Amino acid sequence: MSSVPLQHDQRLPAEWRDLLALTKPRVMSLVVFTGLCGLLAAPVPVHPVLGFTAVLCIALGAGAAGALNQWYEVDLDAKMKRTANRPLPAGRMSRQTALHFGVGLGVFSVILMDLATNHLAAAVLAISILFYVLVYTVWLKRRTAQNIVIGGAAGAFPPLIGWAAVTGDVTILPILLFAIIFLWTPPHFWALSLFVRTDYANAGVPMLPVVAGIESTRRHILLYTFPMVAAAIAPWPLGLTGWIYGAASLVLNAIFLVLAFAVFANKATEAKQMGPEKRLFAFSIFYLFGLFAALVVDRWVI
Amino acid sequence: MPQEEDEVVRKRQRDRAKVTAILLGLFVMLMFAITIAKMTINQ
Questions:
Q1: pLDDT by residue for chain B (43 residues), tens digit each?
Q2: B16 vs A13: CB contact, 8 Å cut-off?
Q3: Which ipTM was obtained for this model?
Q4: Which residue among A15, A50, A56 places its CB closest to the CB of B37?
Q5: Can you give the pTM of this predicted structure?
Q6: A46 CA to chain B: closest CA distance, Å?
Q7: Rounded alpha-carbon distances, angstroms, from residue A244 to A255, A285, A290
């Protein structure tokens, strides 16, 4: 039983800083970056104001999804050390405030996207918010160890939305960008879940290390790395990008593969001895930033 | 409600009102800029 207060004093209005924290600003930075890269990688120029608005809408949509995720998962967050100090489990905000804030922000982001860009971008943004909240948070997360595999699609939408906001359509390159993040999510989160698995186990979340064991998770990380590497290199041989992206993706994917093999070879069961897992998790964030930055440099330099 | 608690509530309300005012001001400027951008593109 958690000692964390779940009851919020209804007379106290939530602080604006806690409302901001509800949007998971750190997660949002990666979403904004990949969305911006999708937008900049598009073959036609975009008006700076409309481009800025599109990225803002992606950020607000991600914030809305994060807020609704925390509204639904307050019981789980209270049980995990990593999340126990969030505004809801810490009792600094009522659930109703989080729900109203999340729904309002989500609706606002979709309407603004539709006004500033086009129906397709607004529709994909709406789908991404609903997918994260309904498919991942409500349906999959507590039911299956494959939660992160299918749920990873929610985080893969931003480059697709950025591209659609500029061009009004979706072609092979944005679909490949979607595939890269979709296939990157499982190794990234499973590496994390290996060294915080006791947290997930205590909260009753069926993450792969909790359900299938450590060894199986390490095998899964390596297995999912191969299709991710193929998707990440594919834009270059397909002629969708130039040599800058090709070279960067070869180097980044080679390092990712080496680190994934190191995780596969590791036999440690204690979190303190999980150096390879921590290195893979840290590098996986740099990997995604590096890959998408290379895409933009490639598009604008060549 | 004790006076101390009342002060905390009022401070939070003031802070939220300020942030809301700033955000609304930015939203108005953004809508203006979007309108100008759309007009420029259509021309």
A1: 678 888 888 998 999 999 999 999 999 999 999 999 999 987 7
A2: yes
A3: 0.88
A4: A50
A5: 0.88
A6: 10
A7: 17, 20, 12
